[in-house]
Specification:
This protein is mainly alpha-helical. The chain has 7 helices and 2 strands, in the order ααααβαααβ.
């Protein structure tokens, strides 16, 4: 005998197969180039502040003379200025990208290209996690002479594996996604806009 209070049986909604929203090599490379340009501009302003960009017009066409002049200027810097010069790319990283990373999981370049760093379940990572697990290892390795360059190269080349994640992605348990591809499907809601994350 059927229970009159029993809810009618219904078929579970059909869910489309998951979509790979991993960012393409092209977009990640474009974001990397843009971030490099922004950092280069910041470094050039700092070099100008230290007076290292002033070139004697009489030596402008003589590469050896320019090199000797630059070495002399570097040698004239105080120890504090030399230390600051070495650490400047790390220091400049925070005003350039800090807000976007904490709010959207994006650097300036990633913001322009339309990709973002997310956790493996498509959530925006905590800022502290991003810095300590994703970026800090890269910075520390970069300061190791010779070996550091090889380790950074190995880190970057890891992106060509099937999951398209660099070593620093694995360390931070993150991935980079393309925001133009829906993050998740929902049977009750429209596809997510391209500039938002489903979290």
């Amino acid at each position: 005998m059927n229970d009159p209070y029993q809810s009618p049986e219904s078929q579970p909604p059909h869910m489309p197969p998951p979509v790979d929203n991993t960012a393409s090599y092209g977009k990640r490379f474009a974001a990397f180039l843009l971030d490099s340009v922004f950092m280069f501009i910041a470094v050039m302003f700092f070099l100008q502040f230290l007076g290292l960009t002033d070139v004697d017009p009489n030596k402008a066409k003589d590469a050896q003379a320019m090199q000797a002049e630059m070495l002399a200027k570097l040698g004239a810097l105080t120890n504090g200025q030399k230390m600051l010069l070495q650490l400047f790319p790390v220091i400049a990283f925070f005003p350039l990208h800090g807000y976007l990373l904490s709010r959207y999981g994006q650097t300036l370049g990633k913001r322009i290209v339309g990709i973002a760093i997310v956790t493996m379940d498509n959530r925006i990572p905590p800022f502290f996690q991003l810095i300590t697990q994703r970026y800090l290892p890269q910075w520390l390795v970069g300061y190791i002479p010779l070996l550091g360059a090889l380790l950074r190269l190995a880190d970057i080349l890891a992106i060509f594996r099937p999951d398209r994640r660099c070593i620093h992605d694995h360390l931070a348990k993150t991935k980079v996604i393309d925001l133009s591809i829906p993050v998740v499907y929902s049977p009750d809601a429209p596809v997510a806009p391209s500039n938002t994350l489903i979290v």
